[in-house]
Each structure stands twice: as structure tokens, then as C-alpha cells.
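#help-structures

NK: newbie question. if I give both the sequence and a SMILES, will the prediction place the ligand too? trying with magnesium ion
OV: yes, paste both and it writes out the complex. here, I ran yours:
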Amino acid sequence: MMKSKLFWPIVVLLIILLINLFFDKNFFTIEVKNGYLTGSLIDILNRGAPLLLVSIGMTLVIATKGVDLGVGSVIAMAGAVGAMTVSGANGDSLVPLFTAIAFVIAISILTGIWNGVLVSRIGVQPIVATLILMVAGRGIAQLITDGQIMTVYYDPYTFIGGGHLLMLPFSIFIVAAMLVIASFLTRKTAMGLFIESVGTNPEASRLSGINSKNILLMVYVFSGICAGIGGLILSSNVASADGNNAGLWYELDAILAVVIGGTSLNGGRFYLMGTVIGALIIQSLTTTIYSIGIAPEINLVVKAIVVLIVCLLQSPEFRKKVFGVFNMKQTEKKSKNEGVSIS
Amino acid sequence: SSSGTGGQTDSSSSNGAGKSSDKLVIGFSQVGAESEWRTANTKSMQNAIKDAGHELKFSDAQQKQENQIKALRSFIAQKVDAIVFSPVVETGFETVLQEAKDAKIPVFLADRAVDIKDDSLWVTFLGSDFIEEGRKAANWLVEETADTEGDVNIVELQGTVGSAPAIDRKEGFEEVIKDHPNMKIIKSQTGDFTRAKGKEVMEAFLKSDGENIDVLYSHNDDMAIGAIQAIEEYGLKPGKDIKIIGVDAVRGAFEAMAAGKMNVTVECNPLFGPQMVDLIEAHLAGEEIPKRVAVEESMYTMDQAEELLPTREY
Amino acid sequence: MKEQTPLLIMEGITKEFPGVKALTDVQLNLYPGEVHALMGENGAGKSTLIKVLTGVYTFDEGSVTLDGKSIRITSPLEAQNLGISTVYQEVNLCTNLTVAENIFIGREIIKRGRLDWKEMNKQAKELLKTRLNLDIDVTKLLSFYSVAIQQMIAIARSLQISAKVLILDEPTSSLDQNEVNQLFDVIRKLKKEGLAIIFVSHFLDQIYEITDRLTVLRNGEWIGEFKTNEIERLELVSKMIGKDLNELKSGERRTSNKAFERKRPFLQGKNISKKGKIAPFDMDIQEGEIVGLAGLLGSGRTELARLLFGADKADTGEIKINGSMANLASPKQAISNGIAFCSENRKTEGIIGDLTIRENMILAMQGLQGWFKYIPRKRQIEIADEYIKLLNINPPNPEQLIKNLSGGNQQKVLLARWLITNPKLLILDEPTRGIDVGAKAEIQKLMLSLSKEGMSVLFVSSEIEEVLRTCRKIAVLRDHKKVYEFENDQQITQKDIMKAMAGGMT
Amino acid sequence: MTKGFQLDSKHLPLAATIGLFIVMFLFGSLRYTGFFSTQVFLNLFIDNAFLIVVAVGMTFVILSGGIDLSVGSIIALTSMVAASLTMNAQLSPALVIPLSLLVGTVLGFSMGCLIHYFNLQPFIVTLAGMFLARGLCYLINVESITINNEFFSFMASTRIPVGGGNFISISVIIALLVVVAAIFVAHFTKFGRNVYALGGSEQSALLMGLPVGKTKILIYTVSGFCSSLAGLIFTFYMLSGYGLHANGLELDTIAAVVIGGTLLTGGAGYVAGSVVGVLILGIIQTVIVFEGTLSSWWTKIAIGGLLLLFIVLQRVIVARSKTTQTSIASH
Ligand SMILES: Nc1ncnc2c1ncn2[C@@H]1O[C@H](COP(=O)(O)OP(=O)(O)OP(=O)(O)O)[C@@H](O)[C@H]1O
Ligand SMILES: Nc1ncnc2c1ncn2[C@@H]1O[C@H](COP(=O)(O)OP(=O)(O)OP(=O)(O)O)[C@@H](O)[C@H]1O
Ligand SMILES: [Mg+2]
Ligand SMILES: [Mg+2]
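OV: that's the protein plus ligand as C-alpha cells.
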């Protein structure tokens, strides 16, 4: 099950990477340059870090049959808060850095609680509940930066998104850490089970004594934290905070990543690893578009086509119709069942 | 406020003339707050109007033309004495401007023109000439590289696809360099006017073309600043190995130039608030004013950066 | 009817789901004007056969002939157009539409280019009244009514189609006697009109009362076709499950209660009520006592049960658990007080479709433990396997998705979910719904043995006979009001209870 | 309003929404000079005619349990096609109009097919549609194209007086016609009921023998058509085609529909509600403008705040009266 879910996304990812190889012979080469490992693959991981984070958070939200449109704004707010906290500072005392991190996490938790309460306690539909933050959040971010692009002159701050550890970009480690945390919460505790059951059938879950309210609250908080850290990385990477543009349209890319990864927007089963692949697909696609010199006008068309291809490849019906006999029996029945069991 | 009763008159000129001295209600519809430049422009306009002792009705269109039209309509409904606005797009304001004209409210265009045949719909257009900015940038480059023989490989960071400054700055730039066969734009991609994108795209450029990039032409300074970081991380010297041209002349650019990381920035001056207020008062006082007033702008290079830096307001 | 030719012939039908062979070489001959029973244990393949016939699933091998023409139906719509009208096992209507809409959608009455709601409501109302003598407001949303009512409505819908073949998959599972009788009258009429009817039920009495012939399936295989009046009950049962069961016939009635002597009360409810749902009532349940709830459709049994479980908030009343005040404001609290509630509405309030048997089973248990104390996977599988064996759930694979189980097997999984929490009070609302004879006997035995170990049971069932057999005390509800409480001693007969339910005595 | 006999509780979200709208309008009238005028109210329709039309299409999609993110881009594409056909190809409006209407219809139809035949998730398919449509705009032209053509100018500038010196535009008439038609379709045609059934439970709809596939495809086709029609109205409104038109409009539309009391999970809601939803978004915008002192960022915050106010109030009102609902109904 899990495997078949991951198979096609991985294939697409490989195809995209191979296309790059075609344009740039040493695309896969990873060399040591002024002390760091560098190479396109590493760049993709590094650039993709924020999206990866946001998508991981989004996965859990979507598993509960919800969606978090607020992430983009949270990214902006986090960046603003972070930059503002260290704006005064310079020299290399680490205190401001950690206060900044603390503040950022604090505010992301706040946003998470905000969304979570609206959805779980007041019962607002997720898409609208989070839409509120999506709109207002940017305002708040700009309020903090006073509409300016706040530049940071404090070097330690740039470490989060620009620094290196063990010759690798630091952000990669952050992502890894969050991924581990998420997997632990969902696979080593009952969190995952509860999320999936609430996402599939809230009423039955309630009658089974599961406190769906707190589950919902928790996933939105987690999503908030992920977005917050993502924002920190973004802003630290360019050593500035841009209240209006930071994280613009991230919500859509994140949802896209989650769905490409095989998680259904109808809630229920979720696949963190799939999400990771999904996010990588999107990021490498972007990088590819830039590096093989596609005209900006047709960026979107290309993106659309790739998205469709991924989805079609994942659809058993499509594979059946196209690849004909190709493991026919299998998919045929699967599709038939899905035909009626989706609801 | 005078807005409640003020507008309900037959001839605007007489009433306008009467009003020119005393407190005016001015509606200002801004595109949005998409960049530092824009914010500076908004501030300048707001302060200028307040300092002149007039009442400001401000509305932010959030980059949406439909919002802007709503805003203009409501200004008309509130019977303001004058409308200032920076169009989101050049096109598609006939109808509402006609309504304004019928309501005898003078309209002043700021920063961006509208493309309407009937120019009686607005009093004047005060703003920068994006195409000219593109030309300036190119001309600087031509002089700078006059004595270098061989190709000059240029990469371009465009603004948001379809936005007026992006289109015009590209046009102006290309218009000049097309007479110089040795100048080639080898890569051109949008960076959406933002630092993050600028950096990301520049990284990709460096990956694919690396050393043989000679010049970066960026449609605004923010993208250039992002790109500079990318170049440094790639291990080249911005300003030396790769010459960097920006537009806007925001403070960030001056810092970069002062640090020798950027070569030149073409000014695109957002601080024309006072100039605009003068025009409004003049018009309402019945004076004749030209249809097109240019904002005085120049161009700053590395060597000027040092002493000018403290004086920059944005 | 032998001489006439079959209306519908299914031959060599084979259907395989990933991992499960649901049907192997099954055949079915259906004659006009007969009622034909499909018999078999849970998971035998009855519903699948029906779904294959009506084009919900496509079969892998085999052939279907209707009216001598070979057909291959690909969608329920097509089946309807061919004159096959079906009531599927689970209520498959839209709860967000009104009763009338549910009956007419797909075949709406159109007048002057627009849907004629007046007419449809009128017809829907009299259809329910005349055919099933069910007098309800057809303009209310379906979700307002209990499963039983919904089931009646589903039947009404199928009757409203002019069809050659009528298929009823466990239509009586949550009806009680009167409704069943109503339904049977209708069936007899249709039979006279020459309809061919396929009827699925786990109630042998009903089978013998209404059907002419029957086809027996066992784990997806065709066992045989018999004339109902030529096959003995025991023979039939043994055909279905391969072992005979006298224990079922020698009803365990009262034996359990003999053994039962009063212990201290576990739950004491004082004038609990909920406006518009159920009038104030008292309810005492002793430790180890099995209390039955009897009542007609919509008499409020489910409501009462839900209140005790905190599924709905009561307006008034207080509940003592083991003598001390308890606040049962939510299921969670009820559960932590040792109460379990197995809902009658398995589809919407029971199963978590996308999860596996294992996950569905341990859910309540895990909820009790909180999310940090995760039951180790190994333990989970042990538990699952244990109960799969105990309730002989089929297929016996803990990792099978529950939505792919047969109706009866789903019911068993839900039962397991609650048994695992080993509650002090187990509330069962129609627990044996759609469960085959064998399993039913097992479950009743289980209930009795558990009650001996001190677990109390509140037992809601539409089968009075079942209630009488197992319960020590029987509360009767009428019109959302608790009207009577019997000590279940030798004297009480089904009649007495019927009377009380119908309002004969007070 | 449409079906007299329905439970009040079903109409409640709608009633609540209308009530809140009135409250908001009164608030504005008390607070700002020139706010309380028929024209200001009519402007809500004039300025949002296109949004009303998309919202109608979106209502059907959401009622069926789906979602359509492509609407904004389709509006842009339609405006672009209309503009280039009129200005560059010099075609007559008699041709341009039907051709542009075809744009969305075809896109919608193809998306519907993808969703049904390969059973893909609507969100993703329409997201791809959104990218595609915008992309195509830029392929036609990155710059905005001004339209000067009598017919378009006529549609744009014609004012239909409604007494008291107040006026509405032709677009408003179109929008209102669409709304009436939609209400009829939703409640008095088979298709309409199938949409509701689909939203209630796709599986049940299938087993009840409803034409699920056809309905689905038709729904997205309708939505696509509405988007294109909205696109035309938008073009009349702007007299230009532009790739960046209606950027992010899909979210506004969804918000409008949901504020109008339609459940995103499908199966419950009203076309009329969506109209009120649009008006509410519109009045929020108007209030902000009349306030006239808000900085760019406070504008955003205020919009969010007002949205919050509405949604929470709505929830509270509905929840209050839902308490009397039958336990089974509430879920
Ligand atoms: N969609 C499906 N995917 C996989 N297996 C299935 C699916 N549907 C049914 N099965 C399997 O097919 C077998 C027959 O199921 P079916 O529902 O026909 O049993 P049934 O005779 O109707 O039982 P019951 O009396 O409980 O309704 C069961 O083992 C079930 O697990
Ligand atoms: N005949 C009826 N007329 C009106 N409403 C009814 C009728 N039957 C049930 N209802 C409604 O359906 C809901 C379910 O009733 P409830 O399930 O408590 O009755 P029940 O005794 O459990 O019957 P069931 O055998 O269906 O479980 C109640 O809200 C009741 O008002
Ligand atoms: Mg069955
Ligand atoms: Mg009941």
C-alpha cells in the first residue's frame, strides 16, 4: 500500500532530475567547494527546506480533513518577528539569536492555537477559518516591519537558513529533525491513529472516546510551528524580512506537495514520506525551470502539465487505460472498489 | 468634514478655485504595499497631504484592479475634492474615470500612466518613465564596457510577469543594447521583485552559466540584493566579477554599493508627494498644468554611495 | 413454477478482491413470481453477489442472463433501467435530502419543465402510509429519522420503481415484528404480480415464512439450491456453517438469571430526560445484570441509550456510578467510567472505514489510554487475532480495511472494539444486527458469560424473543417514554411485552 | 424561499447571513457620511457582478463536495481571449462573445472529465487548471490589452436608471439573471437534485442509480462556463484583457460561498446564500474604503477581523438554534 503510493511520485522526481542531467552534464556531481558540499541536489534540498517543513505540517492538517491556508502568512509573520528581534543586535553574541527563535516559535504556536480554536471549538470550516489568518497575517507581518523590507546585519541570524553543519546546509538538518519529530508523534504514539480516525469519521471517533477537539487543535499548532520555522529559514536565508512577499502562495504549493504525496484531501490515511517526495518534486521543478532557461511566461504552463502528469500516473484508472495490460488485474479491481468506496 | 456637502455643485472650476486655499479632501488610491519603494511612496504622499493641512482618504487596492475601482467609486460617493491614484494596470479605468469626470472630481495619476485615448479624463500624470529607466541602465552599461572587447554576457532578473515596470524596464534596456551586438542577454527569468526569488533564480543562473556571467541587470534593487548574496555564496565577487545594475535606488542598494558589491542603481523616485500636492492645489486654483510631469530622477554609482547613504529616506 | 423458465440466470460467477476471493463459480436461478432467499454466514458472499448482479462491481468470470438475453451490467443505473430494483445492505440514501426526495430522486415527477414537489411529497407520504403504514413527515431530512425508519424508506424507494426483479439485502435487520409483517404483506402482493424477489436475511423464521426457494453460499462458494419447505432448519443451518447447533434451539432462557443473585447497583439514573427526545426516566442497572430495552420503532430506545453514554447531553437528571455521582457529559467520560456503547448505526457512528480491522478494534482502548501510551504493535496484533478468532471474523486478516468487510463482520469488529476495553456496563444497540445465526448464538453466550463475571449489559434489540432469552430485567419504552419495567421471571411472555410496547397495559 | 416546506433549521445559516449583512450596512450608514445611499448599495452589485456569477458556479461545485480553484485564472484567460480577438484579430463581438464563453466551458469540461474518468481529486485538477489558464494568458500576451470597441464600451458604460438618480449596469442584470436561473436549476431540475445527492454521499448516489459521472462533468462545465461569463463581465468592467486580472479570486469566491452558508463537505447550501456572501465581502471592502484612514497593513488586518466577526457570529447564531435539532441530524 505505502509502497505503491510512493512509487509513482519517486518515478516523476527521477524523471525531472534526469531532464536536468540532460541539460547539465554534471548535475548530479556533488563537489566540495570552499569547505562545503555543493551541487544541484543539495541546492534543491536547501531551497526546498521551507516548503518541506510547511508540507509536513500541512500533511497532518489535511489528514484530519482540514486545510491550513494560513501558512504563507505565518511564514511572513515569523520572518518579521525574527528579523525584528535581532534588528538591534550585531556582533556575535548568540543571545539575540535564541530569543528570536523563541519568539518565532511562540508566535507560530499562537497562530496554530488561533486556527485550531476556530476550527475545533467554534466549528468554523477549516478553509475559511484559516483564510482569516491568511489575510490578516500578512497585515500583521507588515505592521511589524512597518511595510519596509527589514534588513538584518546580525550574522548569527543568517546561520539558520544560510549556515552549514558537517559540510551540509543547516536547514537540511532542521527539516530532518522536524520530519523525525512528526514521524515519532504519528507512528510511535497513538497520535497518528487518532488523526486518521478523526479525519475519516469524526462522529464514530467521538463515540469511541477520542477527544477530536484536542487532536484538531494539535495538528494546527504543529502546522503553525512548521510554517514558523520555515519562515525563519526563509528570512534568515536572505538576511531580511519582507512582510508582503515572504511565503506568498506557499499554502498552495504545500497542499500540492501533500496530495502528490498520496494523501487525500478527504482526510484519513496520510503519508509523510510521500509528502517529502511531493515537496521535492515541486522544488526541483522550480529549479529546473530556472536553470534550463524556460521563458518566464510559460513557467505556469509547464508546472500545470507536470502536476497533471503526476496525478494521472497515480490514478489506477489512467494506468489501466494507458498502459493496458500493465498489472491490469490488480488495478482493475482496486479501481472498481474505489469507484464506490470513495465518499 | 467638508466632504459631506462640499461636492454638490454645478461647476467644479469655480468651486475648486474657491476651495484651493482652504482644507481639501483628497482621495488617494494606492496599488498596494508590494515593495519598499511602494511603501515609501505611500508615506511621502500621506505626509505631503497632511502637512499641507488637507484631509486624506487613503485606500489600498491590495494589487487588485477591482478593489481600486471600488475605491475610486467610493471616493466619488464621498464627493472628495480630488482623486490621486496609482493604477494597478494601465488599462481599464475609462468607466470609473468617466464617472469621476461627471461628478466633476479632478483625477491625478501617480507613478503609473493609464492608457486611455480621452485624456480629458485626468488632469495630469506625475511619475517616472520606466522605459527611460531601462535605457539609463543600458547606457551606463554601454559606457562601462566600452573598452572591453568580446562578448558581454548579461543575465536579467525580471519583475513580476506582466507588470508595467517589468515590461518597460526590459523594453528600454533591450532597445539600447540591441545596437551593441556584443551584448547578449543569456538568461532572463522573473524574480517577482523579491529578494528571496532574486537569490533563488540567481543561484540557478550561476549553476548553469557560472563564470561567464559578466553583468546582472535586475528590474529592482531588492532582487539585486538577493542575487548579490547568491553570487557571494557561489564564491564570486559581486560588483567585480559580475557587474550589478539595479533600479529604484533604495537604501539597501546604497549599502551594497558602499560595500562595493553593487555598481549602479537607477533612481526611481517615490518621494513625489509634495510635488503632487502642489499640482492639485495649482489645478484647483484654476492654473493650467501640463498633462505629463516627470519626477526628477538621477542615477547613482558606487563612488557616490558612501556620502549619499545617510541622506536616503527609503 | 418448475416448468416456467428462469427470469434471471447467473452462472459461474467469480469475483476476486485483492487478497479475498469473494465468489467462486456461484450460480443463481430466479423465477418470476418467487421469493428466493440467499443464505450464508457473514462474509459468505451474498451482498457481493448482489452487487455484482447490479453492476456495482464487475465480475471476473461468469455470465448473467435476463429474460433470455445475456447481459453485462456496468452500473446500478443500468440495472434499474433493466428493471432490477435493489435495497442494498447498508442504508444507502442521502441523509441531507428529505424523505420524499430520497424516494423520488432519479425518477422525479416533472410538471411544466420543473420538479413537482407538491405531487412528490403527496405520493411519497401515501406510499409510506399505504404500503408500509409508516406515517411520518416526508419533508423532514432523512437524517432526522432512526436507522429503522431509514431502512423502511429505502424499501419504499425500491417499491416505487416498476421492476421485474426486486432485491432486498437484509431489509429487516433493524425492523421489528410489525414492520416485518408490513413488509411481508407487500412482498406477497408483488409476488402475485409476478415479480421475482431476492431476499437476504439472517432470521430463519422470516426465511421460512416468506421464501419459496433458497440458494446457500459458504465462503463464496455455491453449496446448493433448495425448496424452502423441503429443507429442515438444522439441515439448512449446517449447510450454511458446516456444523449444527442444537444449543441455539435449547434456548438458554433464564438459566443465566437463575445463577444471578443481586449484587450492589452499578449505575443508578434519576429522572434523566432530554427535551423532544425522551421523557424523564429512572434506570437502575445492577452489577452483572443484563437489562433489556424493548419498544417499537422510534420509541426512544436509542435515545435512552445515548443519554446514558453521554453521546447526547441530558437536560435533567443525575447518574450515580457505584453509588457516587458521575458526570457523563461526553462519551470519553462515560468510557472512563467503564461504560461502552455499541451504536445501532454502524456505518456512520461505528466503523472508521479507511482503517484496518486491528486499528478499529483497539481504537476505544487506545482512546482510554490517551495518545502517549501507544499500545505496542505486537500487542495490537495479538489482541486483534484473539478477537478475530473469538468472533470468527472473516477474512481473518487484522490488516484488512474494515470498509471491505461484510456487514456482519463489521458488526463483530465493533463489538470487539468495546469488549477490548472490558467495560463494567456494555450498552448494545441492536448488536446482533445483520449477524448470522451462529455468530448470534456466540455473542449471546458471550454476553451471558461476561455478565457472570460481573459485567452489566444494557441490551436494545428488536427481537423480543432474544431479549426474553437473555435479559433479567426488561424496560419497555413507548413514544419516547419509559412506560414499564418487568422482572424477567417465568411468567413473562412475548405477548405481555408486545402489549406493553403497543400500549395495552400501563 | 425556494421550497416552502423545508425545515427552518435548513434556512438558518442563510437567514443569519442576511441578518448580519443588514447589521453591517446599518453600521456603515451610521458611521460614514454618504454611505447610506441606494447607490452605495447598488455599487455592491455593480462592482461584484462578476464575483456573483463565479460564486454561483462555485456553489454547484462545492454543493457536490468538490472545489474549483481555476475560476480566477479562467476569468483572466477569458478577458485575454476576448481582448486579443477584438483588438488583434479584429473580430466582431458577435463572434468574440461566444468564443470567449467557450474558453471556460471547454476547460471546465476537460477538468470534469479528468476528475470523473481518472477519479482524481478536484483540488489538484483545478489547481493545474488554474496554473494552465494563467500560463496561457501570458502566452497570448504578457502586457495588458486595452479594448476600444463600441460594443464593449457600450456594455461598460451603459447605465440603467433605477429611479432617484441611481443606476445599475448591464452586468448586474446578467448576474441577476444567472442567479435566478441557478436557483431554478438547483431546486427544480433533476441535475440540481443530483448535485445535492452527490454532495450528501457519492456512494449512495451511485447505488441509488443516479448518473454520477455525467453530473460531475456537467458541474465543472457549468462552473467553467460561469467563470467565462464572469470573465466577460469582468472585461466589460475593465475594458481590457490582462494576465494578472482576478489574481487570487478563487479564494474570495470560496469564501463568499462558504460565508453564504454552504458546507464545503457538500450537500447543504443555497445559491442565494452565495450571493449574500459576495455582498458581505463587498460591503467589507466598502467599509474599509469609507474608513479611508487605514494603512495598507491595517486594511488587511481589518478585512480579516471583519471576516472573523461574520463567521463567528454566524456560527454562534446557527449553533444556538441547532441545539434543538435531533441528535442524529447533528454531525
Ligand atoms: N470491496 C471489497 N474489497 C475487499 N473484500 C471485499 C470487498 N467487499 C466484500 N469483500 C469480501 O467479500 C466477502 C463477502 O462479503 P459480503 O459482503 O458479500 O458477505 P455477506 O454474505 O453479505 O455477509 P453479511 O451477511 O455479513 O452481509 C467478505 O469476506 C468480504 O471481506
Ligand atoms: N415513527 C416515527 N415518527 C417520527 N419520528 C420517529 C419515528 N421513529 C423514529 N423517529 C425519530 O427517529 C429518532 C430515532 O428514534 P430511536 O432510534 O431512539 O427509536 P428506537 O426505539 O431506537 O427505534 P430504532 O428501532 O429505530 O432504534 C428519534 O429522534 C425519533 O424522533
Ligand atoms: Mg451482506
Ligand atoms: Mg435504535
